[in-house]
Write a structure and sequence with these properties.
The protein contains nine helices and four strands; from the N terminus they run H-H-E-E-H-H-E-H-H-E-H-H-H. It is mainly alpha-helical and 246 residues long. The protein folds into three domains: 113 residues, Multidrug-efflux Transporter Regulator, Chain: A, Domain 2; 66 residues, Multidrug-efflux Transporter Regulator, Chain: A, Domain 2, CATH 1.10.1660; 61 residues. Strands 1-2 form a two-stranded antiparallel sheet. A two-stranded antiparallel ribbon has the order 3-4. Helix 3 packs across helix 4 and helix 8 packs antiparallel against helix 9.
């Protein structure tokens, strides 16, 4: 059940006549069912187009009851069905248009909206063998061995590689065509590890929680923070180089 906040601090009304509420009031309504939800989470969902609150002349967000219910639906679909935000948005938009839109089944393997994607045409299985990685990255065994020696690619205990290693290998291969050698890229690896360490610190308390839903929320938060970190890193590199995204 969504909780209705007490008090009259919020101003404005929705088309239904119900009062519009602030983001803090939305947080209070949602926390009974979603104890780990945060203002940053609500803002992230807004940035991804899942909800469109009104704005006051001074720029403050104001949410209608429909906005709050839509946020609750998004959070339920993430929690209960493991759906990525893109799929959730398409489903809710279809329902809002009056279309019959059966709820998609669980899609644990799909990446969340805003996350990085595998390179087109590359294998996307959970793990692949050495020969497949060599073929996907178009590199010889010596080249792969050099990447591994610099810690840019790390095989799994069974000798295979995860899907993300395929993307990394292809990018390393493409950068190599411009004369960037593995020794040049160690700084990028170190920066990525520092970013990962910061993200892991933020979600560590949630991952240790006894509540399974809280631990599941920790994994979702981890993905969102990773996606935001990737976008920030790309934007900072473009800014430093004076390159504007088209």
């Amino acid at each position: 059940m969504l909780r209705t906040p007490k008090g009259g601090a919020d101003h404005g009304t929705a088309p239904t006549g119900d009062p519009l509420v602030s983001i803090g009031a939305v947080l209070n309504r949602l926390r009974d069912e979603f104890p780990e939800v945060s203002i940053s989470k609500i803002r992230f969902l807004e940035a991804e187009g899942l909800v469109e609150p009104r704005r006051t002349p001074s720029g403050y967000r104001k949410f209608s009851p429909e906005d709050v219910e839509r946020l609750a639906q998004v959070l339920r679909m993430q929690r209960d069905h493991y759906l990525p935000l893109k799929v959730i948005k398409e489903h809710l938009d279809a329902v809002a248009r009056g279309e019959r839109a059966p709820l998609p089944g669980p899609q644990r393997e799909l990446l969340p909206e805003g996350s990085w994607e595998a390179e087109p045409g590359l294998p996307t299985a959970a793990r692949i063998g050495r020969a497949e990685l060599l073929a996907a990255a178009e590199v010889d065994a010596d080249g792969l061995a050099e990447w591994e020696s610099y810690g840019l690619i790390t095989p799994m205990p069974d000798g295979g590689y995860d899907a993300e290693s395929v993307t990394v290998a292809k990018l390393l291969s493409d950068l190599g065509k411009f004369g960037l050698e593995p020794r040049h890229l160690r700084a990028m690896k170190a920066a990525a590890e520092r970013e990962a360490g910061l993200v892991e610190q933020l979600v560590a308390p949630l991952r240790r929680h006894r509540n399974p839903q809280t631990r599941a929320h920790a994994e979702e938060t981890l993905k969102e923070l990773a996606a935001l970190s990737v976008r920030l890193h790309a934007a900072l590199v473009r800014s430093a180089l004076g390159v504007h995204q088209q």
